[in-house]
Amino acid sequence: MHRFHLSRARAIITFFALTLAALLAVPANAAPGTLDRIRERGVVHLGYRVSSVPFSYVLPDGQVVGYAHAFALGIVEAIRKHLGLAHLGIELVPITSQNRFLLIDGGSIDLECGSTTHNREREQFASFSSTFFIAGTRMMVRTDSPIRGFKDLGAVRVVTTAGTTSEQLLRRLNNQQPEPAIIISAGDHHDAFLALQAGRATAFVMDDALLYGERAKAHTPQQWRITGEPQSFEAYACMLKRNDDAFKAVVDQAITKMMRSGEAESLYAKWFTQAIPPHGINLEFPLSDTMRTLFRKPNDRPLD
After folding, report:
1. How many angstroms separate the Cα of 160 from the Cα of each of 139, 164, 201?
2. Mean pLDDT of 163-189
3. Are residues 210 and 266 located together in one domain of the fold?
4. For residue 2, is it within any domain?
5. Of 233, 258, 286, which residue is a domain's last?
6. Which of 111, 182, 250, 285 would disulfide-bridge 272, Cβ 3.0–4.6 Å?
7. Which residue numbers delimit the Solute-binding protein family 3/N-terminal domain (predicted)?
């Protein structure tokens, strides 16, 4: 009898130990996931950039537009279909380079498609979709400036946008200069370009597509020149909460469909090779072979 009770006790202990182990093995994001929250409230909280022309920016009438924003809207429609909803609302939330990771991690936004670079370091804080754009880090100067490349930036004032990979790169390059530049960190791309226009900086370092976007907004775009060999290449992707695999699968499938159907290439032509609002300026930034390859073979790999 004693032996029976002892054996039974061991069995009970083993059962509870296995049950506890199984519970601990369940991923923390299993309940509730982003898709569950979206289904429950019937709304997607979508982060957007205020001045990242031509990716995500606001027109004078308050409308959010752009190449990346078009991807975001396509993803929202894919989410609606995946969840079997007749209607899915969108709540637009403005973000900055400095607060975007906090907003994703805290659940204030479900998805952000703008000009966010996907690199391995950032995978500690968020997950990233398939890449929708590849940019190179260059600089913008006045057309008559003697500056041609990054080696010419010694002992001058250089502006960039705070909280970006371009700022990190610029500071690393600056440490290698015999005469370091004076680096100014602006709150957003618009403020950085204002500093350049006002003469508070000699060069504006940022991803080339964003520089072309700021140049297009200038009163006289011909006064500004994008120059320098790219010092790095950046993979832009939509950002979502870390380790939410079910949500990421829906997002990636939507982007892949847009790319392979030809829709992504049409969006590129619209935002990079044609006149865009609000001033009807053409960025004249043709589709590269790198982008053509990306459209044929979508992937979610960072470039670093």
Report:
1. 9, 8, 10
2. 95
3. no
4. no
5. 233
6. 285
7. 43-275
Statement to judge: residues 127 and 113 lie in one domain: yes
The total number of structural domains that make up the chain: 2
Average pLDDT on 36-62 reads 97
pLDDT of residue 216: 87
Identify the domain containing residue 195 by its residue range.
137-233
* Residue-level length of the chain: 304
CATH number, domain at 153? 3.40.190.10
Kindly state the helix (H) or strand (E) to which residue 165 belongs, with its residue range: helix 165-174
Lowest mean pLDDT among 16-25, 130-139, 235-244: 16-25
Q: What tens digit of pLDDT does each residue of 196-221 get?
A: 999 999 999 999 999 999 998 898 99
Q: Where are the beta strands (DSSP E) in the chain?
A: 43-49, 51-52, 56-58, 64-65, 89-95, 111-112, 127-142, 157-161, 182-186, 203-207, 224-227, 233-240, 275-276, 281-282
pTM for the model: 0.83
- Identify the sign of the CA torsion 165, 167, 170, 171: negative
The strand pair at 182-186 and 203-207 is best described as: unpaired
Q: How confident is the model over 2-15, as pLDDT tens digits?
A: 443 444 444 444 44
Contact status, residue 154 vs residue 180, Cβ threshold 8 Å:
yes
Query: What span, in angstroms and rounded, lies between the C-alpha atoms of 19 and 31?
Result: 18
